[in-house]
Design brief:
17 helices; 45% helix; nine-stranded mixed β-sheet; two-stranded antiparallel ribbon; alpha+beta
């Protein structure tokens, strides 16, 4: 997502933008639909708006509560709201994202593919060993184990705007790796959250896709990286009615049916003739993705040059047989949008450090609100005037007009002075030349040489 203009969400302007966003999407109604009801006291919509505004104030939630000038919202009000187990945050986020996506789709060309993007990122809680469902999980970015969750995220993109649709804070399926077990709850929403957290990643991912489909969010393809691109998962995605575009692991334990043989991607690459020249891809073959239960579907494998290392190659798989190799490469490139989401959410929206609660419901609530904040920023970037446009247009035009150098500017000034002297004293050309030479001789040699070259 392109960065927002500086000071776009500061001061009174931020309050107005947040208030308008919450009003346009009837956040109060969405909260009631999601089980956030309150008989008396501060309305839940006001509490949510306060948490929304706290992020853009430049202060932590704790500081905002301490220095609230109106003293309307207390700490207990905020933390009771975040800890409330009956709120179905999945429904809230799905409904909100569906509203925004339905406004974006008419702006998107019919030829452009809308896609679901799935990925996970390490949610670090290493400093708190008593957090509910805290587990020892693997950080793919740093290639180390740490204590926290896997933030499994499902997002929607049309290639321009990325909208986080659903997520799950994954603990570990292995109980021996969980430091703290889940608390017992009678509320259905709280139970469902905890069941998904300890399920396998493929099962949870399929559940997130099913929920997005039931919410009416439209997409034609599902993009995943190599951590999810197992044949069984690809078949399950295809059974939901989506085409899958994935990065494939170059593993000798994963096989595809090619030329009536079960072969790994390395064997397929070694046994086929490659394309010569500077083509974007080295090899393209049609294979069959099958599972031990007997199900199989056709797919295309595209072996792409690795720009970082020309001796290596990457393998992309697509179950959409109508796509050519360039379309597959271009479509998979949209997956980068979720990496930008993780960067913005962690570095700017404080999705990890913004909540210090040990309650799983509170962490889920905070993560949902952060996703809603990102949705607001994405909508601002897509629909409202971008204040950077005039500035960028200025600099683009400015780049076309080359700045004159210092010596050129000084030469122009001296020329103007010489012209004025000539007009006043009616000097001949020979006298003018002598005057210029005398002036240059009186200057330091490096500067006189530069002025002479400028002349």
């Amino acid at each position: 997502m392109p960065s927002l203009p500086e000071n776009a969400l500061n001061g009174d302007n931020s309050k107005q933008i947040i208030s308008q966003f919450l009003k346009n999407h009837t956040i109060a109604h969405l909260l009631r639909q999601s089980g956030a009801n309150k008989q008396k006291g501060i309305p839940v919509a006001k509490t949510l708006q306060f948490i929304f505004s706290a992020l853009f104030s430049g202060k932590s939630l704790h500081r905002c509560l301490d220095y609230d000038p109106d003293h309307l919202i207390k700490k207990d009000t905020v933390y009771r709201f975040l800890n409330l187990p009956s709120i179905d945050w999945t429904r809230f986020l799905l409904t909100l994202s569906q509203q925004v996506i339905s406004k974006i789709i008419p702006l998107t060309s019919e030829d452009r593919r809308s896609v679901f993007i799935i990925d996970d990122s390490f949610y670090d809680r290493s400093r708190s060993r008593k957090t509910e469902l805290l587990a020892r999980v693997y950080d793919h970015a740093r290639h180390i184990y740490g204590y926290g969750y896997r933030l499994l995220t499902l997002g929607w993109s049309d290639g321009n705007t990325f909208i986080p649709v659903n997520f799950c804070l994954m603990s570990s399926q292995d109980s021996s790796k969980r430091l703290v077990e889940a608390h017992d709850h009678c509320h259905t929403a709280a139970k469902d959250r905890r069941k998904l957290a300890v399920a396998s990643a493929p099962d949870t991912t399929i559940t997130l896709l099913e929920q997005a489909k039931q919410a009416g969010i439209q997409a034609s393809h599902v993009l995943v990286d190599s951590w999810f691109s197992f044949p069984s998962f690809i078949l399950r995605v295809s059974a939901l009615g989506y085409h899958c575009v994935a990065m494939v692991k170059k593993s000798k334990k994963i096989y595809y049916e090619f030329e009536r043989k079960r072969q790994s991607v390395k064997d397929i690459f070694a046994g086929c003739k490659k394309r010569r020249g500077r083509s974007r891809y080295l090899l393209s073959v049609i294979v069959s993705v099958s599972h031990k239960d007997g199900n199989s579907i056709p797919a295309r494998l595209v072996f792409v040059r690795n720009r970082s290392n020309r001796n290596e190659y990457l393998v992309l798989l697509s179950t959409d047989m109508t796509m050519d190799e360039d379309d597959i490469i271009q479509t998979y490139g949209k997956r980068w949008a979720i990496e930008i989401f993780f960067k913005v959410a962690k570095s700017y929206l404080k999705i990890v450090k913004g909540c210090s609660s040990r309650n799983y419901d509170a962490i889920t609530a905070h993560t949902s609100i952060t996703c809603a904040q990102y949705i607001m920023l994405a909508e601002l970037q897509r629909f409202q005037e971008d204040y950077r446009s005039i500035g960028d247009l200025f600099f683009a035009t400015f780049d076309e007009i080359q700045d004159i150098t210092y010596q050129e500017a000084l030469f122009l000034i001296l020329s103007a002075v010489l012209h004025a002297i000539t007009e006043a004293l009616t000097l001949s050309e020979e006298d003018q030349q002598k005057l210029v030479e005398a002036f240059l001789d009186s200057l330091p040699k490096p500067l006189s040489m530069r002025l002479a070259s400028a002349a």
